[in-house]
Design a protein that fits this description.
There is one protein chain. The protein is α/β, with parallel strands linked by helices. It has one domain: Rossmann fold (3-Layer(aba) Sandwich), CATH 3.40.50.720. Helices cover about 40% and strands about 20% of the residues. The chain has helices at about 10-20, 35-50, 65, 80-90, 115-120, 125-130, 150, 170-180, 195-200, 200-210, and strands spanning about 1-5, 25-30, 55-60, 70-75, 100, 105-110, 115, 140, 160-165, 185-190. The protein has an eight-stranded mixed beta sheet with strand order 3-2-1-4-5-8-9-10, sandwiched between helices. A two-stranded antiparallel sheet has the order 6-7. The longest helix has 19 residues, at about 35-50. The two termini are about 30 Å apart. The structure holds NADP nicotinamide-adenine-dinucleotide phosphate. NADP nicotinamide-adenine-dinucleotide phosphate (NAP) binds near residues 12 and 146.
């Protein structure tokens, strides 16, 4: 599979690239193609150190150039930039490309981390992405409660669940397959994209609990 990561130079992008490069061709994206190429080269070295050889590859390109020819597009950018970035991506991606949102709309206040849509009346991230990158059926959301620190540490399984929301069974099945390829990560289908807020809101909750109880990068697991 060809997997493009918009904003792939960030921590989550690095984790996704390292976790999937054993089998897939990863294209790390950035607003700056040169920055993307440098990140891709660093990730390739890290992957080879961890795994020896990799059957896939990691390359880098401009966010918008890479989006034209990938099977899966991960939107690994902050919530604030959805409108601008997806506005530019609209019309550029293949009809059969699925779009994955791990985006958490979250900010910090005196009380602690809060979920922006609840406090400010804005839309959940997955819904904003779907508005911009139609058809809605292509959009799937997941990975909200996975810490980048753990995702990048490929020597260790995650020992966690991730909730998946999406309207189209085929798109959900494709992402479920990719989740299953990440060691120790269990996909849990939550429901249609209309429920993405239930997955997104868990992240500020986790961070507040972690801070108050001195826990390091906690995740979620249903028992
Ligand atoms: N970090 C975590 O542990 C974690 C956990 C779960 C979910 N998430 C979610 O996953 C997403 C990625 O997280 P992250 O920590 O990797 O994010 P990040 O490091 O803050 O940002 C990722 C990339 O976004 C790009 N970016 C910055 N400003 C931009 C702008 N104005 N327009 C377009 N792109 C811009 C940058 O790439 P370039 O400068 O190269 O363009 C940056 O490397 C976020 O939505 C976050 O909420 C994060």
């Amino acid at each position: 599979m060809r997997i493009g990561i918009v904003g792939g130079t960030g921590g989550m992008g690095e984790g996704f690239a390292l976790r999937w490069c054993q089998k897939h061709d990863i294209i790390v994206g950035s607003r700056d193609a040169q920055k993307a190429k440098e990140a891709a080269s660093n990730y390739t070295n890290a992957a080879k150190q961890s795994y020896g050889n990799i059957s896939g590859s990691i390359s880098g390109d401009d966010n918008f150039a890479l989006a034209k020819n990938v099977d899966v597009l991960i939107l690994s950018i902050p919530y604030e930039f959805i409108d601008d970035t997806c506005g530019k991506l609209a019309g550029q991606i293949r009809d059969d490309c699925i779009v994955v949102s791990p985006i958490v709309p979250m900010t910090r206040t005196d009380a602690g981390f809060i979920y922006i849509p609840l406090e400010q009346g804005k839309k959940p991230a997955g819904e904003m992405v779907a508005d911009k990158l139609q058809p809605r059926s292509r959009v799937v959301s997941a990975f909200h409660t996975i810490s980048e620190v753990k995702l990048k540490n490929v020597g260790q399984g995650l020992d966690a669940d991730t909730f998946i929301c999406g309207d189209d069974p085929n798109a959900v099945a494709k992402l479920t397959e990719l989740v299953n390829e990440i060691s120790g990560l269990r996909p849990i289908y939550l429901g249609p994209l209309a429920l993405t807020y239930q997955a997104e809101i868990l992240t500020p909750m986790l961070l507040n609990a972690a801070k108050k109880n001195k826990m390091k990068n906690p995740g979620v697991k249903l028992i």
